Amino acid sequence: MKMAAPTASKAASLGCNNKPAFPELDFRSGARVEELNKLIQEFAKHDQREYDDQRALEIHTAKDFIFSMLGMVQKLDQKLPVANEYLLLSGGVREGVVDLDLDELNVYARGTDYDMDFTLLVPALKLHDRNQPVTLDMRHSALCHSWLSLRLFDEGTISKWKDCCTIVDHINGATNYFFSPTKVADWFYDSISIVLSEIQKKPQRGMPKVEKVEKNGTIISIILGVGSSRMLYDIVPVVSFKGWPAVAQSWLMENHFWDGKITEEEVISGFYLVPACSYKGKKDNEWRLSFARSEVQLKKCISSSLMQAYQACKAIIIKLLSRPKAISPYHLRSMMLWACDRLPANYLAQEDYAAHFLLGLIDDLQHCLVNKMCPNYFIPQCNMLEHLSEETVMLHARKLSSVRSDPAEHLRTAIEHVKAANRLTLELQRRGSTTSIPSPQSNGGDPNQPDDRLAKKLQQLVTENPGKSISVFINPDDVTRPHFRIDDKFF
Fold it and tell me: What are the residue boundaries of the Mab-21-like HhH/H2TH-like domain, all occurrences included (predicted)?
């Protein structure tokens, strides 16, 4: 005798409904998903930077000082372009905002050494007059890297920069000048040091205090004291291109998570060469392709819950995987972008799925380590972990295994670290000045009036554009009138 399946009402009365009678658990660790979500939210709350009027004014004052300094560097020997376009990114190089090697960088800690950090890409050369795909000289380099011959530029440019080049003589008698990232970085550091020395001979009212200037590999790190805040600027000399590199052309043929959300023109508006070489590359000649401008656009299409999970995961791995330095936060960023392509948009948009996203990012990172494979998002044929030894990847994979076994405990540790950093910052602010800080351009009268307007404007931009990067156009002959660009909007 056959029996009919119970109806929905009967199933409910029999306790066969789909809703579990127990909390949702993570199978691997046994952690409660609801608790993980709350811990991620708590981390995000403490990790977010609150900008009051005073802090906004301090940010503007530091930015104003840095751009004034760069204007003076341009005037030293006219090497930098007169009309330049900088890309200002929220977060320092150590935060993985640009694909640069971290093993040559000194360790700076938020709270101990600085309160806010930024990365500034400064074009030493610009190639903005080409509409076709840009073909680079990759014959001598690993994937995602290139040498740069000054043959692409005019005689005036070659004359200015040939002392920052390596010279290769060909059999036919021709001489080729290759732009050297190490020599450019040396010149940049020396020029910045000269300018800062001159500035400090004639201090102006309200001028930031230069607390530290260091050359970290090919990056110049400057920490400024402004009122009660300390700002870290990682300044990176780059080569700027309009258009898209031919080596990444096939990437445009694939389907991506940002399709239909932003235009292709926004994504492929330009790219950079940054001063970093491959594992076996020649440091004096080799540059690395960077798609920082494109990544600014892609971030607009990533859900807030996934970004929260990414920030929490980044805080965990920066501490855990710091020695030996093999994994960068930039690797984690690449994995997040691949996950956005792989998973449905409506799944990634779930506001209460941050815990699932965090666990997934940890799993992805561990998978990449075990298989020693992390494709560059824009040039997938480039494996960013290829050079690592088996011993190193297994060491880090085992460390990640401990995180995956108890993610709640590692989140609590990350929360305690960020709270401690915030306490150090607040303590410094209590000891510091409580008065308004005039801009370096102020010269008496009512110094706060123009700067208040700028501070409010800057605060509005920060509030309305969380996590976005700011391009600034500046004329070195008139540094009092910077022009902001956030994505495609001018201010």
Answer: 325-400
**CA 153 to chain CA centroid, nearest Å:** 29
Flag whether pLDDT at 44 surpasses 80. Answer: yes
Q: What distance in Å separates the CA atoms of residue 111 and residue 277, rounded to the nearest whole number?
A: 31
Count of CB atoms within 10 A of residue 390's CB?
8
Question: What's the mean pLDDT in 323-328?
Answer: 79
pTM comes to 0.83
Question: What backbone torsions phi and psi does residue 6 show, to the nearest 5 degrees?
Answer: -65, 145
292 neighbors 87 (Cβ within 8 angstroms): yes
Q: Are 99 and 276 in contact (CB under 8 A)?
A: yes
CA angle 335, 50, 292 (to 5 degrees): 35
Can you tell me the distance from the alpha carbon of 20 to that of 33, in angstroms, rounded to the nearest whole number?
13
Q: Which stretches within 202-321 are classed as H helix?
A: 264-267, 292-299, 304-320
Taking only Cα atoms into account, the Rg of the chain, rounded to an integer number of angstroms, comes to 25
State mean pLDDT over 242-252. Answer: 91
Q: With CA atoms as reference, report the closest residue to 256 among 267, 247, 246, 245.
A: 267
- On whether the CB atoms of residues 296 and 487 are closer than 8 A, the answer is yes
Q: What is the mean pLDDT of the chain?
A: 85
Q: Which two tokens stand for residue 95?
A: 């935060």
User: Which run of H or E residues covers position 454?
Assistant: helix 448-464
d(CA 246, CA 296): 21
